[in-house]
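Exercise 3.2. Students should predict the tertiary structure of the chain below and write it as structure tokens, then compare their answer with the key that follows.

Predict this chain's 3D structure.
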Amino acid sequence: MSTPSASRATPEQDLLRRALGVLTELAPAAIELGEIFRAAGHELALVGGPVRDAFLGRASNDLDFATSATPDETQALLARWGDAHWDIGKEFGTIGARRYAQAGGDDVAGGSDDVIVEVTTYRTDKYDPASRKPLVEFGETLDGDLSRRDFTVNAMAVRLPDLTFVDPFNGLTDLARRVLRTPIAPERSFDDDPLRMLRAARFAGQLAFHVEQGTLAAIVAMAPRIEIVSAERVQAELSKLLLSANPRGGLEVLVDTGLADHTLPELPALQLEIDEHHRHKDVYQHSLTVLEQAIAQETGPGGPVPAPDLVLRLAALLHDVGKPATRRFESGGGVSFHHHEVVGAKLVAKRLRALKYEKQIIKDVSRLVELHLRFHGYGEGAWTDSAVRRYVTDAGPLLERLHRLTRADSTTRNKRKAQRLADAYTDLENRIAVLREQEEIDSIRPDLDGTQIMAILGIPPGREVGEAYKHLLGLRMERGPLGQDTAREELLAWWAARQA
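Answer key:
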């Protein structure tokens, strides 16, 4: 790759200059691997995301290569180059390897400076109309392999070891224009692999690119085809989109093209028309804004909610999905959504299960949706100690996320109202801090445990012990720490009243 002169450089030349600097950093390991493959009579090229990211000025230690070698031949060559290799993707033509950044064995394995490569035999993918899994056919040429890539910006390559730039579909021009376009006719590309339609939305958010009109039209026409793709693959793309720098742009592509109707239908359902005068918030746009505001409140690595946080982002996006099902038109012309947080929590759990999210994520997101109105239920007056204790206890380990979700949920344009809500929540957080200093508010328990309850009342394990424990917990919530003597008196009084 040659460097263009600095004067009158085109956007493409600027990108080439930037890529040269990045690829120079990658060159030692990549060139050595290229020399190994060439000596064995095979082609090797750096492809896909690493090439695109080099033009964007971003280096990666995870490198993707395409080769003319068969998977067996690749495996043998990578065994010579790397410190470890694996064949978990061999069925699809992919062999992986890792070279440790330093010599020394297991104590340094897996370091952030290790070089990880995946080498895939030239191939073409397509779906059988009746199958959710792609069929793999090995190809013979680099250009043919690049033609099966999802978008032109991912269909560029650098041949190794001589660093020759290959761009048969003008991906560099599209990269400079920040455009997503398929290398071949979009209808054919999306028919071969419908997941590429979701990738268009993901890259729109991840890279802040826009989708070319013909490609966008094809997605609209073929959106139902996404249903052939497995839930796990859909979930992976959705998660990558939500964890990107600008998920709003990608989510708008999902909704505008109709893809969301088949993957996340609760989101477009929020585009309900409240009334003919449009006096109420657009719930869909409100949800996108809440997502953006929640992202802005994520913290650095050492903070309580490190960015990017998938649970917080899912909860922010989906917190109001119960509104369409609970909408009621009131006699005075208003609209209500009573208990939409409870209905929404159930809908969220159902959708995330369908998308095969792990159980803890489903539990945490649905719980945040259920709790997102709890602050407003107490009004803007002074919180009692009891109310603060219950708020913290109900949120449990999700408290820091709930803080951010609740703050993000204020999208009013009335500055006075917004400031009043913000001040009220700041007061709540201050009250929590004060109680934390006074008592163990984050892990509230009764002053007596189950064993002590049984000993005092002279009863065996059973339902009555649980009821006694619940009674003492309620007292602890209302009155704070009682001390064991007072708790014993309260327990005996409760038991006597129960026996009367």
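Discussion points: The radius of gyration is 29 Å. The first helix runs from residue 11 to 39.
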